[in-house]
Target: DUF2304 domain-containing protein
Amino acid sequence: MTYQWTSIVIGLALASTILWLVRRSHLHGPYALWWVGVGVVVVGLGFFPRLFDLLASQVGVNYPPILAVVLGFSLLLIKMLTMDLERSRQERQIRRMAQRMAILEARLAELRDRSKTERDSA
Model:
């Protein structure tokens, strides 16, 4: 099996796995877009391997596999940054919800105490 077919099979397997995870609600849409994009790129490189060589020569890279490593590493860094941004947003929401819940629990306790004292005095 040539590297093109290997690339095509890996890309299709990745894309189909991502779609299966989305259908089973194990992976949400925005996150799946990254991975489906990766699958599409891998399949595309399998069908058109010279395209990557052409891209490498256009940006001045003499050894095309190094471009793949650099691009892959760059995409991983971008993915990590977006994941950290999302996690920070979720932590902020959780903290705010916990504060609101504490306020509501304090109000509920106050209302229970007030109700209890009104019953005792009546």
Notes: The mean pLDDT is 87.
